[in-house]
Each structure stands twice: as structure tokens, then as C-alpha cells.
């Protein structure tokens, strides 16, 4: 029986902190010292050792460990995931301040880090689509485009999960994936 080729990109409605994947991606801020939203959830589930690990990431400018559009990797601490890839999405300012390019860079940088570390499965939340106000449909299209381009050119990661925190996000992500 030929193994049905599994799609490499899927949508999953869940709390990202529950996923036992090689890495979950955190929608962080440039300080990398925690926050609300998924950042807060990940730090709560990972425990204080995650904050300690973030503090060990060197600052590239005073108070800034991860500039917008870039990514950094730490261990998963108490999470079921082995690693956390922290990326910083752009704050939505209307779309004419380079936001699309910076959001695309978040997905590319995170995937490049995963590949460099030989990771096979990575789960993303909808970066910038909460506190940072990025319109979900535009962000989902960028996410799917960048992930597909990266996976077409790289064997790792083998699997990427787009995590929807609610039904609204799930339907937009599924529509973007089906497009
Ligand atoms: N699992 C999966 N997705 C989640 C979870 C969770 N536990 N919690 C929130 N989300 C979703 C939100 O519904 C949204 O779609 O993550 C997406 C990103 O929203 P935010 O967490 O608000 O992140 P973002 O918009 O990128 O803003 C980042 O918020 O929490 C602060 O420190 C963070 O300053 C940074 C800013």
C-alpha cells in the first residue's frame, strides 16, 4: 500500500503550548522577556527557566535581543515542545511601513533556524495577528506563501503546523492553505 503522502503544512485548532513538536514559535517582542497573548501562554507553560534562557540571549542593541523580523531559539523547558523559536512580528501600521516584508521575514527566519537545528516539526501561531493588529487574512496569505516557498527548497522541517487559537482563525488559515 503506497503511503499516502501527508501534506507538509496543516492547520490545527489548539493551544500551541500543548503541542509535542520539535519547536513551537513564539510571537515575542524585541526584549524577549515575555508578555501577553501567546508569549504569556508559552512562558507560563514553559516555566521560569524559559525567561532565564531568554535573558541569556545576547542583546544586539540596548534592551533588544531579537529585532523585528528575526528569530532566536531556546530550549522548550517545561513545554512538551523541545524548543521555542522566538520571532518578533511587525506592529500593523496600515501596511505601508514595511510590515508585509517583516512578517514574511519572521516565517523565513524561524524556518531557517529550525532547519539549521535539524528540527522536523514546527508549529506557528498567527504572528502579529493579536496585540500587533495585523489583519488575519493578509497575514495568513504571507504565512502560507513563505512556508510553502521554504519547504519547496528544503527537506527540513518535514512538517509545519499553522495553529489556530479559535474557529475564526482556523477558517482563515484553512482558506489561505486551500487557495
Ligand atoms: N496558542 C495558539 N495561539 C495563540 C495562543 C495560544 N495559547 N494565545 C494566543 N494565540 C494567538 C492569538 O489568537 C493570535 O492569533 O496568537 C496570535 C498572535 O497574537 P499575540 O499573542 O497577541 O501576538 P502578536 O500579535 O504577535 O503581538 C506580540 O504581544 O504578547 C505580546 O509580548 C508579546 O509584545 C508582544 C506582542
What is the class in the CATH system?
A: Alpha Beta
Mean pLDDT equals 96
Spell out which ligands are present.
adenosine-5-diphosphoribose
Helix percent band: 25-40%
Taken from the alpha-carbon principal axes, the silhouette is globular
Q: Name the CATH architecture.
A: 3-Layer(aba) Sandwich
Biggest beta-sheet profile: 6 strands, mixed
Strand arrangement across the biggest beta sheet: 1-6-5-2-4-3
- Name the beta content range: 15-25%
What's the helix-strand series?
Answer: EEHHEEHEHEH
CATH topology: Leucine Aminopeptidase, subunit E, domain 1
List segments where confidence is low: pLDDT < 50 over at least 5 consecutive residues. Answer: none
Number of strands: 6
Task: Determine the number of helices (DSSP H or I, runs of at least 4 residues).
Answer: 5
Radius of gyration: 15 Å
Structural class: alpha/beta
Q: In CATH, what is the homologous superfamily?
A: Leucine Aminopeptidase, subunit E, domain 1
Report, as a whole number of angstroms, the end-to-end distance: 30 Å
* Number of separate structural domains: 1
Secondary structure topology:
Layout: E1 9-13, E2 23-27, H1 37-46, H2 48-55, E3 71-75, E4 83-87, H3 99-116, E5 121-124, H4 136-153, E6 159-164, H5 167-178
Parallel strand pairs: 1-6, 2-4, 2-5, 5-6
Antiparallel strand pairs: 3-4
Bound molecules: adenosine-5-diphosphoribose (APR).
